[in-house]
Design goal:
The complex is a heterodimer of chains A (598) and B (57).
Chain A (H helix, E strand, L loop, with lengths): L7 E5 H9 L4 H28 L10 H13 L1 H8 L2 H17 L6 H14 L3 E8 L2 E4 L3 E4 L6 E9 L2 E6 L4 E5 L10 E3 L2 E6 L2 E7 L19 H21 L1 H10 L2 E5 L16 E5 L4 H23 L22 H23 L5 H22 L7 H18 L5 H22 E2 L2 H12 L11 E2 L12 H10 L1 H13 L3 H10 L3 H10 L7 H11 L3 H9 L1 H11 L5 H8 L12
Parallel strand pairs in A: 10-11, 11-12
Antiparallel strand pairs in A: 2-5, 3-4, 4-8, 5-6, 6-7, 9-10, 13-14
Chain B lengths: L5 E7 L6 H6 L3 H12 L5 H7 L6
Classes of the chains: A alpha+beta (598), B alpha+beta (57).
């Protein structure tokens, strides 16, 4: 009998500083996962309470059969129960069910819980009799496998009975009965064991599920199972082997952390994602599109695991005050970010900068790429920290984490980078910031009216009042934008040449101007942006960038640090007004503001 | 910060509480711990993206 002494988790200062300082040991990762295990068990109790309080008819609404299986299995095989409760898609399901039930008391579908319990029962050798959901003709048993029913009916339920040495599934109202052997690999297309991959290099083992089946493997709406063809699965295994070779060789500390923290890789069709991603509900999972190269995949592992660590840490220790508010500039996002999002970003991207720092030092085949990406990401983190400089919502622990990020960034900044690469990076981040202001900051309306009047009457500009953040959707052009062109110039010269040719054939003046700017033909680009200023909102930024590249930084300053103001005045006065003249006129009236401030 | 002291957490440790107990225990401290973790669950994909970024930080 449990003695009802409720204790709380704690985190040693040493472990906290280890987390803030970079890659963590297995022991520290286990501590973070212990906390996540408690959190999920508490959420599971909440789900069970709600389901019992708000009963819904049907075989998939009662959580008690699954709970009983889990409780019995825990006595015999606690590690199996822990493994399934910490299974990343189960965390996603918990979040979804809790989010849906805590408000409107809607039906909560415990079918997925039954599949988790069935998987536990099979792995732990505990008898069970459970109703399972059938979707797309498939029953998913997380970490065990999937069972494809020889029927075309898309959804429904089946009954799974597991006893010693036998697993029997009954479906279609008893008309279909199958006996499956979960230890058997796929030979007939009916049962396929859950794909996993293990690789050991330099004494460090990576062991992950390659999940193409679980409905919550992409962390959002339930997805249909995807039967990865054998050749495609082989490519994933080969990629993971190569990634592991690289990580253990060039990034041994990150490799050890990943070995301790990553338990599931979700292959995503490239059409649905251009880069890796993760989720607060799925600690230990990395979703990644097929087709990433070895370096990009290794970076994705490092990057996404930082989010998992940050999520686990923030559930143990408050990093922001409950009333923290405000919006900040993140150079990797199109939208303004709240404080928690900023912490995630700087924590993940300083690790990415460190990743490329190590890749550059060790003379890897991708050293030039590594040098550029080091320069790029360290500059981004620097701008983000500048934006955070005025943050008031950090707790002492949050401030300590930011201070450690700053220390880690300083180490990255000590590395020499080729001047021409750093110059490209400089152009990229200045461009991004100006575009971010154009999209997200609404100039003070009265100030714009007054300034437009001043302009029309030949008076000096008056200092504007601060603007405000606005909700605005941003449609990306259906072609490479200026920053993509510049990145391609460094990382993919052949792709860059093709994009330039496409621009030169294009009837879009701002596209041609972007290409000219990326080719360093700044005179042509400036003429192009000025000619296109009635076509596109962001030509103010293009004009500013050209002036800056031509050594006219003073003239460019207002265009690049307050482009939203110049664009608003130009729009009020007339689209054909010369933005250079407006910028120069505004210059004495506009003070510099902290990065990200309206 | 001193390395000798721990950072206190509000998260109740139920890693060793049997599931049979966890299902039935009505201790007010446990119920508050459950409410606390429920409150922190993002209520929508939008909310989670605001916190983490989901796709690109």
């Amino acid at each position: 009998m449990f003695d009802h002494e409720l204790t709380r988790h704690s985190l040693s200062r040493a472990a906290f500083h280890e987390i803030c300082a970079g890659a963590v040991s297995r022991e520290t990762m286990v501590g973070l996962l212990d906390a996540e295990y408690s959190r999920r068990r508490l959420l599971l109790r909440a789900v069970a309470d709600t389901a019992t309080t708000v009963p819904v008819p049907g075989g998939l609404a009662d959580p008690m059969p699954a709970w009983d299986v889990l409780a019995r299995a825990e006595v015999l095989a606690p590690g199996v129960v822990r493994d399934l409760i910490l299974h990343p898609p189960f965390g996603v399901w918990l979040h979804r069910v809790v989010a849906r039930t805590s408000g409107a008391g809607q039906r909560n579908d415990v079918g997925y819980l039954n599949t988790i319990a069935a998987a536990v029962a099979i792995r732990a050798g505990v008898p069970c009799d459970l109703t399972l959901p059938v979707s797309y003709g498939v029953i998913v048993l997380p970490t065990v496998g999937r069972l494809r029913l020889p029927t075309r009916f898309p959804a429904g339920t089946a009954r799974l009975r597991h006893s010693v040495g036998e697993t029997v599934v009954t479906a279609l109202g008893g008309r279909l009965t199958m006996t499956i052997d979960p230890m058997r690999v796929d030979v007939d297309g009916v049962f396929r064991a859950a794909p996993s991959h293990s690789v050991t290099a330099r004494g460090v083992e990576l062991s992950v599920w390659l999940d193409d089946t679980d409905p919550y493997r992409e962390f959002r709406e339930p997805r249909p199972p995807y039967e990865t063809p054998p050749t495609e699965m082989l490519e994933w295994r080969k990629l993971l082997d190569e990634v592991w070779e690289m990580l253990t060789h060039h990034h041994p500390a990150w490799a050890r952390e990943i070995a301790a923290g990553v338990r599931l890789v979700s292959p995503v069709p490239p059409a649905r994602a251009a880069a890796g991603f993760s989720s607060a509900g799925a600690i230990g999972a990395v979703a990644a599109p097929a087709g990433l190269g070895v370096s990009a995949m290794a970076e994705t592992f490092v990057h996404e695991l930082q989010h998992s660590k940050m999520n686990a840490l923030s559930r143990l220790v408050s990093l922001t005050n409950a009333d923290a508010s405000g919006w900040y500039y993140a150079p990797w996002r199109a939208d303004p970010r709240p404080l928690t999002g900023m912490l995630h970003g700087v924590f993940a991207f300083v690790a990415v900068a460190e990743f490329w720092l190590a890749g550059r030092r060790d003379g890897a085949p991708t050293a030039a790429t590594a040098e550029f990406l080091l320069a790029y990401h360290r500059r981004q983190v620097g701008w983000a920290l500048d934006s955070l400089a005025g943050a008031t919502g950090l707790t002492d622990a949050g401030a300590e984490l930011v201070a450690d990020v700053r220390r880690r960034l300083a180490a990255c900044l000590r590395a020499d980078v080729a001047t021409e690469l750093d110059a490209v990076v400089d152009r990229l981040v200045v461009d991004h910031y100006a575009g971010w202001r154009l999209r997200n900051i609404e100039p003070d309306r009265d100030s714009v009216v007054a300034l437009a009047d001043d302009w029309c009457h030949g008076r000096p500009a008056r200092p504007p009042r601060p603007g405000a953040f606005r909700e605005r959707t941003h449609a990306s052009p259906d072609r490479p934008d200026r920053q993509e062109l510049l990145r391609a110039k460094v990382l993919d010269p052949a792709g860059f040449d093709a994009a330039v040719r496409r621009a030169e054939r294009s009837g879009e003046r701002s596209f041609r101007a972007d290409a000219a700017y990326a080719r360093d033909d700044h005179e042509a680009a400036l003429a192009g942006y000025l000619a296109a200023r009635g076509d596109a909102h962001d030509t103010v930024t293009g004009v500013g960038l050209c002036l800056r590249a031509m050594g006219r930084a003073d003239t460019a300053r207002v265009l690049l640090t307050r482009p939203e103001l110049v664009a608003a005045i130009a729009a009020r006065v007339g689209a054909d007004v010369d933005p250079i003249a407006v910028g120069a006129w505004l210059e004495p009236a506009v003070d510099s503001v902290r990065v990200g401030t309206p | 910060m001193s390395l000798s002291t721990d950072l206190d957490s509000q998260l109740v440790d139920v890693t060793r509480m049997p599931l049979s107990e966890l299902r039935t225990l009505r201790d007010p401290r446990l119920l508050e711990a459950i409410r606390a973790v429920v409150r922190k669950v993002p209520r929508s994909e939008h909310e989670e993206i605001q916190e983490q970024g989901l796709t690109d930080s």
